[in-house]
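INFO batch 0412 | record 1 of 1 | parsing
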Amino acid sequence: MKNFFSLLKREFRLFWGNKVLRILFIGAPLMYGILLGYVYGKGKATDISIIVVDEDRTEMSAKAIQLFEDNEVLHISKIRYDQNDLSDVSIEYDASAVVIIPKGFQNEVSTKKYPEILTIVNTANILTANYASSAVQLCLGTLKAGIQIQTLMKQGMPPAIAATQYEPFKATFIKKNNRSTNYMYFLWPGVLAAVLQQVLLLGLALSFSSEYEKGTFGELIRRTPSIVNLLAVKIIPYLLMSFGVWLMYWLFTFWFRVPFYENLWALTLVAGIFVVAVCFIGVLVSIVLPTQLQATEVLMVIATPSFILSGFTWPLSQMPLWVQYVADVIPLTHFLKAFRVLIIEDGRLSQTYSFIGALLITCLVCGILSYICLYFKKKSYLKLHPEEGEQL
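INFO prediction complete | emitting tokens
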């Protein structure tokens, strides 16, 4: 028993002696606990973007708009007076619903012609779609009740009788994009992209750190003195293998009958830039950290919360500003935004330029940092092994 406790003490000493493991074991739960607390801290979605098309422009339509503005769940991002280019405007403002108040609405209500208010719900994100449609329905129900009360006051009819005889207008809800609100169509591709990012990061974590540990870094720089070539030989295999994974994902869409046909080439272009950005992050960490274990552990910390922070399921707008800044550094955030626009919302490639730009910035910054760090690693190695430097 004494020997057993001695071994336990030894194990604790080994744990506390490993700085990286100590930081990860204590720091990761602490960091994720705080981070996820802030991500979901509100507990409900508020200020969800909607667009109102007011073709009537009357006192009654103004009352409806005011009800939307007073509802904490909704935020009117744009008020329009026609239905031109509604799809483009919805993508631009990331609107969860478009409410259309028809021309002659007030007049038809007054003459009991039962006009119709149409609400187009964007089910690209099922969560925000449900919040938005419920809030719009509540506002329109309140408006109906208000109109009924005014009518009762004018006619002197008892409220209970009038409520069964008079319906001032109809409210129709139409689902757009993922019309069946199929969670498979919504969640499955996003999770697969997160998996691709994670395996790329874990694979590239070993790219240079394994060379350091095995003592083959010197052989590598003898065979390929160019820094650019060193980076290329590490990244290109993963680019080629990622294309194979992308092709496999595409074949899965036929197997599971997921509609994945429109804008496929545009999304493939964005996916290629996304993969390059992830590769440069992985290579950078692998260059900086001296062991495979340390590189893998750090990249796991980066990769694990990325899907939650991407805003794909829980909207980024509901998170604190500093969390949004963290999310913007993660390539998955921008790829999933582009995916939603191109595949779920059937948008155009030009509507994803801001996301592509963010991915290209990540490529550029991490690429330059990788070059600089590898340059100094090579210089440091040759300083310790001057005989090898003379052979180059």
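INFO post-check: The first helix runs from residue 2 to 17.
INFO record closed
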